[in-house]
Amino acid sequence: MKPEVLALKQQDIFKFNARAKGIPNVINMTIGEPNFPTPDHVKLGAIKAIEENKTHYTVPEGNHELLAAVANYLNVKYGLDYDPLTQIVATTGVTEGVFSAFNAILQPGDEVLIPSPSFTIYGPDASFNKATPVYIDTSKTGFKVTPEVLDQIMTTHPKIKIFLINFPSNPTGVSYTHDELVELSDILRKYDVFVLSDEIYSELTYNYKHESFASFLPEQTILLNGLSKSHAMTGWRFGVVCGPADIVAQINKIHELATTSITSITQAAALEAYTNGFDDPIAMREQYCARRDVLEAGLTKLGFKCPDPDGAFYLFGKIPDGLDQDDVQLCNDILDEEHLAILPGSFFGVGGAGYIRFSYASSMENINGCISKLGDFIKNHTHANETTA
């Protein structure tokens, strides 16, 4: 057995969710998944494909009509200019996109620079490829990478081959302004490094219009995006990898080995989403904003401090003084006592300890229930601490 495989561990978030699902009447605020249905016209696009027996293999990179629609969508939305035949590959979600890109690029001894706290697959993907993840603790800089820190680390770590950035961020919800992206791209332009930019939450940006890293550094950026969050299509498993033609061709080789191609039915649904679903995210985004405001106000009242949520559908709350600062133990206690599932910040790596991630990709009823249960827990434990004192 390969030592890289033996070293892999099951993701903590999956183990925690499995435990939560075994508890009756649990309110689950852990899942990074829209609670909206896939838009009807997208579902009908898939049904039509089934009825027309479009159920066979496609070319590995994806149906060319679909890739043209993706290129047009990214151009209209973000001003990006990709050749659909040479610069885009349709993948089984962004997860496979990251895996295939790492496999295509990394060699043993390379390093991958990852702002942290971060989504949980990036580090293990790097280690699986015999590369070393290097984490930037962003908890002291508003959960953003500063150009000064980035330049310093790039200078002192000449083996860095990929800088991975995810914005809007899972787990913090922060994003980057135009000026901040200019500053970061100016730093990275000086180095022989790829930027792997995970922008799956690009359509769920609230405080300013999303701009892609690829707009600022197209010659070095590999863009990851898809439909899971924007169109409530997590189960369809559709993502795209876009970038310079020479590297996309190599990524497509790995993608082909792993999947042959993604399902024809998912591609039919994606074609409909990218062709006629430009406005699908709007109503969902408006509801996320309302949920965010209710949850943020409730958490603030309970003493949590959260970075300003620019996008995605997460709040990353600092545990108030007076509560157990061991976020893993605290979340397990809350789950046991209140039947409320929320994720420890430690699960998301360096800089996450002492925080809790709350997902507001849930109903308003669940959000209000979360605030109520959390309030009861704090009240009970504060009273217990006072009595003990």
From TrEMBL:
It holds the Pfam family Aminotran_1_2. Gene3D superfamilies: Aspartate Aminotransferase, domain 1, Type I PLP-dependent aspartate aminotransferase-like (Major domain). GO terms for molecular function: pyridoxal phosphate binding; transaminase activity. One of its GO terms (biological process) is amino acid metabolic process. InterPro entries: Aminotransferase_I/II_large, AspAT/PAT-like, PyrdxlP-dep_Trfase, PyrdxlP-dep_Trfase_major, PyrdxlP-dep_Trfase_small. Keywords: Aminotransferase, Pyridoxal phosphate, Transferase. Its cofactor is pyridoxal 5'-phosphate. Residues 25-368 form the Aminotransferase class I/classII large domain. The keyword Transferase applies. Belongs to the class-I pyridoxal-phosphate-dependent aminotransferase family. This is Aromatic amino acid aminotransferase. It comes from Companilactobacillus allii.
